[in-house]
Amino acid sequence: MTLVLGSIAACSATTTVVGEISDSSISVNNSIPPPDIWVELHSVGSRPCPLAVVLTNADPGALPVEGEQVVIDGSTVLDILEVAYIDGEATAERPVVVQPGETVRVQIAFEEAIAEDRVILCNGPGDYEAGRYVALPFS
Questions:
Q1: Rounded CA separation 58/82 (Å)
Q2: Which end of the chain is more exposed for a tag (fewer CB within 10 A), N or C?
Q3: 3-12 tens-digit pLDDT
Q4: Distance (Å, rounded) from C-alpha 104 to C-alpha 113?
Q5: β-strands 103-109, 77-79 pairing
């Protein structure tokens, strides 16, 4: 896992954070500066990851779960995934499903007015309980 700082061609004020999706976790470097970042995750696991990026004021380790999946209800847990690329190609597919061996790249904005945590998670049955999430705390 490495943190890569530098400019992105589309926006020089962004940072790219690199991490991995495994069968039991999502890992990134949590030293994330605002305001905008790109998160690039490579799937090294053996299971697909229906990726969600959410905004929450709840404890990232205690999100509401129903039917073995995180409940994204628009109030306590709000879906904020808008821009996603899989292996360099833009995708409008929702949920964004990252297959083993693929790399997903998503943009996440941190704004002072929205001080809740961002959580990246796989939201397939049992994924959240297995630890396939990472919190990106607002600082």
A1: 21
A2: N
A3: 222 222 333 4
A4: 27
A5: unpaired
